Protein 1
Amino acid sequence: QLQLVESGGGLVQAGGSLRLTCTASGRTFSSYAMGWFRQAPGKEREFVAAISWSGSSTDYADSVKGRFTISRDNAKNTVWMQMNSLKPEDTAVYYCAAARAYSSDSTYRYDSRYDSWGRGTQVTVSS
């Protein structure tokens, strides 16, 4: 398993941007597909974005497609999520997660597929 630490959350006005960072410890980071999930108060955790271990494939929830961009640098053991045009409904705790991948272009939407999780970072978007 990897140890994951998120950063970059905060308070931003609607229409603004934030960049979340997830830093992983472990020498096998490049064999993990990575994902971002979020959980708003009173709601279930939901998939936001995922990226394959090679970086060649990405996947996004419909609610963030065109606004969020996930990327990674395996040499830095880091995944980012650039969030633009933020909306109040994007307010949530955002979690980074890692899943052992069986192919270089695999991405996963189901949280049960992920076996390492960070502690989360709060994102609050004011209207």
Note: The chain has a mean pLDDT of 96.
Protein 2
Amino acid sequence: QVQLVESGGGLVQAGGSLRLSCAASGRTFSTYAMGWFRQTPGKEREFVAAIGGIDSSTVYTDSLKGRFTVSRDNAKNMVYLQMNSLIPGDTAVYYCAADRRGFVRGPKTTAFEYDYWGQGTQVTVSS
């Protein structure tokens, strides 16, 4: 069982930056692929970015590429999402997720591929 705890959300003005963190429990963290998703009320959870377990390969949703950067620190069991040039449309609850089969496959972009989820952290971007 893996527990994930996100932090770093908050209120920021448009054009600003935030860095989200996700702390993971478990001794096999480095083998998990990790993903970031976001969700707004009434909408489905949307893929943001993911990073592989073994090779730390990354994948992003096209519309966010260049503004968001996902990274991980396996020694600390942490995964991060650096968000720059934020716009009001980035307002959402952001979730991190873990894919326990990440050691055999690359990072995935669909929510059902992930086994464990954090509770989410709210990001609000004001105009």
Note: The chain has a mean pLDDT of 95.
